[in-house]
Amino acid sequence: MQAFKTRNILILAAILAILVILPFGAGSYVLGVLTTAFYFAVFAMSWDLLFGYAGEVNFGPTFLIGLGAYGAGIGNALLGMPLPIAVLFGTAAAVIGGVALAIPALKLSGPYLGLITLVAVLLLQQAIVIFAGVSGGEIGLSVPSVLSISSKINYAYALIFMIISGAILLTIARSSLGMILQAAGQDRVAAAALGFDVTRHKILAFAVSAFFSGLAGALLVFYLGTASVNAVVDLAIGIRVIIAAVMGGRRTIIGGAIGAIFLIVAAELLRPLGQLSSFVVALMALGVIMFFPDGLLGMIAARRRS
Amino acid sequence: MKEATPRLVVEGLSKRFGGLVAVKSLDFSLYGGEILGLIGPNGSGKSTAMQMVMGVVKPTAGRILLDGVDQAGRPTHQIARAGVGLVFQHARPLRLQTVLQNILLGLLPDSLTRLRPPPGALDRAREIATLCGLDKVLDRTPASLPFADLRRMEMAKVMARDPRVVLVDEPFAGLARDEVEDFAALIRAFRDQGRAVMLVDHNVKSIAALADRVLALYLGEKIAEGTPDHVMRDETVRRVYIGGAIETHERPEAEINAHQVLLDVADLSVFYGKAQALDQISLKVHQGEFVSVVGLNGAGKTSLFNAMSGLVPHQGTISWDGEIRRKADPAAIARAGLVQCAETRELLGTMSVADNLDLAAQRLPVAEQKSRQDWLFGLFPILKSRRAQQARTLSGGEQQMLAIARALMMKPRLLILDEPTLGLAPVILAQLSDALRVLRETTDITLLLGEQNITFALPHADRVYLIEHGRLVWQGTPARFAEEAGKNYL
Amino acid sequence: MSKPNIKRGAGIALAAILAASVSTVAVQAAQKPIVIGVTAEMATIPGKAIANGATLAVQQINAAGGINGRPIKLIIEDNHVSTTDAIRSFQRMTRQDHAVAILGAFTSEVALALEPWSARLHEPFLITGAASNKLAEYVHADYAQRKYIFHAYLPAAYLAQAVCDSTKDLLVPMHMTTAVVLSEDAAWTKPLDAGYDKCLPKVGVKVLDNIRFDPNTTDFTPIYQKIEAMHPAMIMAGWAHVGVQPTVQWAEQKVPVALVGINAQAGSSLFWKATNGATEGVLTGNTSAPGVAITPKTIPFTNAYSKEFGSEPAYSAYSTYDAMYALADAIKREKSTKPNAIVAGLEKTDMVGTQGRLEFQGKAAKFTHALRYGPGYITGVAIQWQNGVQKCVWPLKLANAKVVFPSFVTATK
Lengths: 306, 490, 413
Known about the structure:
The structure holds 3 protein chains of 3 kinds.
Chain A: H1 2-21, H2 28-53, H3 61-77, H4 83-105, H5 112-130, H6 132-135, E1 141-142, H7 151-174, H8 176-186, H9 188-193, H10 198-224, E2 226-227, H11 229-232, H12 235-249, H13 254-269, H14 275-291, H15 295-305
Antiparallel strand pairs in A: 1-2
Chain B: E1 8-17, E2 20-30, E3 35-39, H1 46-54, E4 61-66, E5 69-70, H2 76-82, E6 84-87, H3 99-105, H4 121-131, H5 147-160, E7 165-169, H6 177-192, E8 196-201, H7 204-207, E9 213-218, E10 221-226, H8 228-233, H9 235-241, H10 253-257, E11 261-272, E12 275-286, E13 290-294, H11 301-308, E14 315-320, E15 323-324, H12 330-335, E16 338-341, H13 353-360, H14 366-379, H15 381-385, H16 396-409, E17 414-418, H17 426-442, E18 446-451, H18 454-457, E19 463-468, E20 471-476, H19 478-484
Parallel strand pairs in B: 3-8, 3-9, 6-7, 7-8, 13-18, 13-19, 16-17, 17-18
Antiparallel strand pairs in B: 1-2, 1-4, 4-5, 9-10, 11-12, 11-14, 14-15, 19-20
Helix pairs in contact in B: 3-4, 3-5, 4-5, 5-6, 13-16
Chain C: H1 3-26, E1 34-40, H2 45-63, E2 72-78, H3 83-95, E3 101-104, H4 108-121, E4 125-127, H5 133-141, H6 143-146, E5 149-151, H7 156-170, E6 178-184, H8 189-202, E7 206-213, H9 221-230, E8 234-239, H10 244-252, E9 258-263, H11 270-274, E10 283-286, H12 298-309, H13 315-334, H14 339-347, E11 351-352, E12 357-358, E13 381-386, E14 389-394
Parallel strand pairs in C: 1-2, 1-3, 3-4, 4-5, 6-7, 6-8, 8-9
Antiparallel strand pairs in C: 10-13, 11-12, 13-14
């Protein structure tokens, strides 16, 4: 058991080492694809904290991501905030929005939280379209500031951000707090009967998930130089985040990162297939989820055992 | 041992679900250092009462005083922190964590900022695990544990909370006989540590050796309270569980055995995950026979019938009409003539009485549908006057009649009736009993009746099987039942 | 496939993907052809015209021996009218495909989002359909950093001017002297409306009201009723994202007010079919018109275009076609595909295109790197749909028809 864990850590360290030295060999195009993938990885890891641990299916990860992205974008483009302040502003918008959504939603049981998060995304999307004067509407909002134009520096920012976010999320997931969250996710009544305020814990999980989703969304805006509905709010993006997390391995945090990087890289490689590429990627994701319900991490573990 | 002032005082506790009164103005007290058994058949309100004490269900009225402070209506986690613990019958543990970590969960504070367990918690968890007999499986995950150890782990989690009042839901359900004593010892340990313990179960028998005091519920009301012995001898309790004086009408054995065997069950066992519900049951039903399977709630009757109907997986063989069944296809089984009228009735609530019957008659020719419906309306005249009414608006007794009529509409060769008396008033029981007599005397339908109410189960039966704790413990004619098995029934 | 095999298969697939992702690093774009990128809104009439205009120009240039003997390799990417998609594809074409320059974008918002990237990546970018004044003003504000951007079309201020000029020659003599400005709410119509407000009074037309509507509007009845109540002679349109809906409803509801101004989609020959003939009598400003010899290049271009694509070109096809030639000339002239050389080459542009004489304005001008407007350069045309055909009605020396409004337009009488 212990040897197995040590080996996992070694493999993880090896992968990270490759990612760290990659900029010295790879072209800016590959770095660009991976940079997007790293932000996506944070989306998926944040989502896994909610689903894998707190047991709540958030169908609207892009509600949190979108609030962070548009909060930051509007802060920078319209309110004239400098980039770091705009990022904080967007992140705060995501946390406030996430908690404001979670408090009433968690009072409902069963599939209702999922439905509410779904509706929240549609509302946000509509709001962006209606208030096009502020948000840039369907076309998108262009921001004056960018993190960097160097693909190496952007890559470094995204990689460091992903590693720090992953480490914090993993620490929370593995802590006492994570254990209480899992207990609440498994059996709400039983967890309450052990004296845990289930609702308060789940709201905290929502807030943490919103914090990292929003922060990643905000940074992504300043990487792309733009915020648009189809990049950070659209339901399809949310579904991709969910697929990444489930495909990578539920209740692992790291699995979300692996799934996200896999999905983005695969989609980019299959781009020559045109419209068919997203279909093939979806098919591959379906295959992994069907044959390995524990995701890519589960698949690797199963191979190791055999 | 027992303290002078009660630790938990329940006053006028009531719960209504819409029109249904689940618990009616219940009063009782629970002292530190005693074990109280709360018993009642299915639907008596005992689970609702327990859930109200834990705050899982909010009471409609009444007070729940814990050390003098009213807890009624407070959220579960606050009641838990005030000192009430509940050992769930089926809880879902943390799958990825070890037994030790699961116990550790009970020792964690309700804090949003603490990322590590409090100092000493791990040692305390080990100590509790040892007390509960889990010291050898500390590092295993729940999925790899036998059922009894899972229940021990639930005990350990509650023990870790150090509760002043412990509620235990069906303490021995699913346990093997030799494991029961271990659990009884654990529960006694709770008492001996000065805690107030309340066991919730179907009947007195299973907890008689353990409980200091028993409180019996029926239809939401207290019907008896006292020592286990006293409650078991109580007239009202005996009437609820056993019924009144019994008159039997069995047909001679030779006459029965002259008919061929219609259903032959051999060595049937049923498991739900790790919990064993049935242990190698064998029984035979002859063509045209009326067989009663009696046993208290939780004995395994429903599991037996569901296995016969192909609804739950099982071990052992089931033969129908002389042929061993190879595939459990519920629809095909029903078409072959084995029809079950389930305990839960399964009516289509928003459809009318007539529609419920028509739906069951889909496979019959139109002329036969009509004649069969007329015959059923003759058997249950009240249904005829209610034919246009929505099924869910019928009274409990009428719903039961409709459920039986619907099963008969499917032209069964063998009709299984599972606990038809559940929650019904005595006057309705008499009507149902009459209907069963007519079925037995005027048709060739074979009947298999599952009952806890002996008075209802015995009068028309040719033969009786008694099931206890998933095992067949007695079989014979109804006339011999009272003498050989009746005394130990409760 | 047995289950272990599936697992192995999946593992191999995963490995292959990772391996491929590394190997793309090694692949370098072939040095021989000159790669030029196009970003277009492929699902729209003007967007498709951008792609077609570029394709036709490249075909002709390559057939004539390419640029200094090197063929052009054209890459066309759909930006889905999304700033994010546009930026991603702009970066991809620049970095991965090593495009020496990128053309296109008719949506001002998209073009505005791409401009900083052109500046940051030092990637020459020729905007060939969008019309916002801000596009060129952006270059003017920081020429040194942003000189890679060229507005190879007209800023909205010039479009408004062209409309005013044609109105003065055509409509004011018909006693049409009142107008309601009706523009879609978009970046390019803000300067257009400002232009209308400024130049219409100068030519003797009174602006009664200025109405802006959401491009998602489907029912124009209330808007037309409101306009009718004001009894103007003209509706001065500012439409590019919309076109079919308001045109069809104008005809169906027999709004008795002439529909003039800029109705960009009406510049395409497909518009007759799209509106089922409702566009009869619609007057719109454009940079070119089919069958009108604005320059000697115009008619050969429209002929080749309709032969190749089966429809008459929309306005953005003319501008993209001309921009591609200007770009090829610049590279030819400077004998280099380096960004600074291309910028220098484009700044020396002085050629006759399909729209007129092309020249980019200098850094001192308000609209730096926008096409020069006015007599001798580009003046635009006014066309009117008459009996299913686009007729040129202005400038008068090129006109092949006189203005005729449908009978329900009573405001002119």
